[in-house]
Every structure is written in C-alpha cells, then in structure tokens.
Amino acid sequence: MAELTSLPNELLDRIVSYVHVKADLANLRLVSPALKAVTTSFYFATVPLYAHWRAIENYDHDDHDDEHEEDAVEIAPHMRTPNNVNYNADAFKSILDCEALNKLVKKVDVYTCNPDCDNVPTWYSGLRDHSIDGYSPNDEMADIWRDCFNRLPELQNLRSVALIFDRHGGTSRYDNLSYDEDILHGIGARSNWQTLLFGLIGLKIENLSVRHNQECAPESDEDRKRINRESDEVRASRNRFLSGLHSLRMSLVHEQSLGENGTTLKEGDCLTCFQIFPTNWLKPTAQNLKHLTLYADLPFGFFPKLELRDIHFPQLRTLALGQYVISHDWQVDWIISHHATLYELYLDHCSILFQIGHSSKAGLNEEGYFHDDKKSACTSTHDGLWQESVWYSLDPTDDGWSQSTKEEIYNAVTFASFGTRWHDVFDRFSRSLPRLRTFRFGSSDQWKFDTDNRFEDSEPGLPIMPWESESYIKNEMFEARYLHYNDWDEEYGVEWGEGEDSVIDFEDKRWTAGMEEPPACEEEDEKALIALLRGLKT
What pLDDT does 220 receive? Predict the structure, then answer.
C-alpha cells in the first residue's frame, strides 16, 4: 500500500477513476491521507438525494376504525439506502452548506421513490401496511427534502441531474374509476415533478436523466383544462431548460391495464405516449443534444409507432435504444443520417419485425402501419364478428358454427412480412457510419422480463429495464432479435402460437399456412456483426 500511496497524484487520480462502487470509494478514503485527498472528489462527484417521506398522520392499522380515533398512530416511514441505513435529507443539506463539498458535486440523483424503484402495488390493499417499511404510496416529501430540492441551483459545479421515479406507471380511468390508489406516482405525478425541476431559477445543467418517465395525453376535461391553464412562462421555462441539454437519458413506463379491460398495448397509454413524446422531449433538445438514450418497458417503434423522420440531431455522438422494434427501412436510414457525428451506437434488446398478423377488416395503411386513429387501431380484431363470436369460442370446427361464419373467420386474418434482416442492417452500418468507434448489439443482463402483474390477473407484468448500463452489453445473437406482431392476441412474440391462451391453438391450416418461422440466418447475422466490430475506428 505504501508503494501505491507514493505514486504521483496524477496516477492516483487515474487509478481511482476506475472505482465505480460508492462503498469502495468510502473505504479508500480511510486508507491514507493521500488516498483520501484523491478519493474525496470522486466520492462526492455524484450525490443521491434519497426520498425523505413526510410523516403520515392518523395512519390506519388493523384495529383502527372511525369510532376509535385514539387508536390511530402517526409514523414517518423511513427510506433505507442501498447500504440498509435509514436516510435523512439532512445528509444532503450538510453537503449544500459545506463549501468544500458543495463544489465537488457534479451530479445529483433525485429519488422520488425507493432506491429499487419497485413499490410493488397491492391492489385494493386499503391498509397499505408496506408503507411502514418505507414503501409509502403517499407521494409527499418532508419539508427538509423539498428544501434540498429547491436548493439544487446552489451546487456550484452541478452539471447533471437524474430524476428517478417508481417503475409502476399510473393507470387511465375505467368506468369512471381510477386504480391509482396503490401507485406511488399516478397519472400526471411525474410531469409535476419535472415542472418543479425545470422551474428552479438558476439551475443550468447539461445532462438530464429521467428514469421511469410516463408520458400521458390528457384524457378528461379536467386534465385538459389544467394543461390549458399552464402559463406561457412555464412552457418557455421547460423549452429553455431542454434546449440547453447535451445529454438526455430516459426510460419510459406505461400503465398496466386491468386484464378485463383489454391488453396493455391496445387499451393502455402507449399509443398517445409515443405520439406526444417527440414534441415534448426530442424536438426541444434537437440542436444541442450529443447523447440520447431511450428505453421503454414495451416494444416500441412499430406499434406503438415512434415517428422520427422529421427530427434530426446535428451534434449526436451517442445513441442508445432499448427494446426498439425496426419494421421499416427508414428507421435504419434515420440512424445512418447521423453518420457525420455518430461515434457510439448501442442496441439493447432491439428487434426486427419479420411478420405482422392482423385483421383484414382494419388492415394497414399504405406505409404498413396501423391507422393513426387510436380507435381503429385498438379495435382491429375485436370488433364485429370477433368481439361477439370468436373471442369466446375460437374453434371454427365447432358444430355450432354455420358454414358462412366459418368462412368469415378463415378470411378475417391476413399477414404482412418485412424482408430486412440484421445482417443487412450491420452491413449498412459498416458502410455508412464512418466515425463509429463503439457498437453493442445484444440483450443486457439487467433486463427482467419475468415480473408480476399489479392486478394479479392472467396478464404478465411489464419488465424491469436496465439503467445506465448500455456500455456493458455483450455482443450476442439473442433469440428475440426477430419478432412477429400478433394483433389478435395483441402481443409480440418469437414463435407463432407462444403462450397457453394463444388463439393459434385453435386455428386451421388456412391460417397457419401464412405464418412464417423466425428468420433462420444466425450465421449470416453473426458474420456481419463480427465484420462490423472489426471495422470500427480506434
């Protein structure tokens, strides 16, 4: 250790820069005065502002009722840090107040939830006993936390802010009811926090990260009136804030639909989310943005469609996409259009759509997308014949069906195919991205697709997404690099007929004859990927 600490500070500084675990940096500070001097700047470069909940008054418990109010209790649920320590925002305040530490802070991670971002909803739980352990569905912070948040502009060298929300999206209203009672951040809560951040006077940052954002168009008259009341000053403040960004990192979450009301893809908020997302976030940042990371907990690009053709980032150096679906050549063209500046490209669990099965009633438009109108897209296979007959009895060979009804069922489905393969895409990248130095294609180990549905019904839950980990993606040929879209089951899949309840189980050969196998081109894809990696600039 004496040999290490005798090194020049420049070398020590370089060595310590490779230590990324906060606990390891803390231990290094205790080794020697020399290491403490070097390590301190790295330790305080990124500082978390963890959630510090407001005390909950008159908290109900099992024995409490309206006739015995004296049994009510008051608690202040604690947020436990990753080191299993109860957090108090006074720790952040002490950094704000210390001139020596204040100037070391370059990034703040603002948590409006617990560190694992997984406040597992307990639908209709009523008592919410989990809040005693810090999993409080009450989205209110203590005054000390709000004071620290408002003082962020006082950090002299602050350049980056990460706004971190819970991973469970709020829900729309069904039958005039909202199922947000057990969601930490319901519809609109995230945008409220963002407005507060954008409005902080004097806050000038270059890098913004929003983990588990939810973009929702107003659905009710009340919501529309609220947005219309938003002042021009607030809108200008938002656009001014975004226009100065050099880096935007975002993961998008969506509402988990209640199974009896439809699937998350068709009945959820994802269609409107990706309609308004480019206007709200991409266009204001376009001129100065150098780094863009965009992930979603649903496959996006085709359905829901993300339209990027009228957006260009003239300074873009790094692009990372998570669960992006390529269905049209223009999407590859769009990436290549940044050839003059693009140095890094990360494709995490991204797929090519090789086939679409859909209702011949709804069909696709001339570009090969479902119609823009949400109603026509959402009812593509569940209207008329499908809703009344096929949905509950999908076996056309049933003796109860008339011959004319059978023929209508057989003719109700059609297929569309997309011929581009990953080796085509890799070849184009090799030829058309001359400045590319880093490329990753695979599926991050941080994806967690086996999650529970918040409503505990038969529908699967939405996945947990990676965060700040694209540089660790291993280049590989993962299975889901080719997907089909099944519009009657309303889901993406690798093999036709996946899942216990797929209607494919009941279909005859006139349907299955049109279903293609996933492309069998792993060898070609792998060779093209290797050639692309070997040709990268150093």
Answer: 57
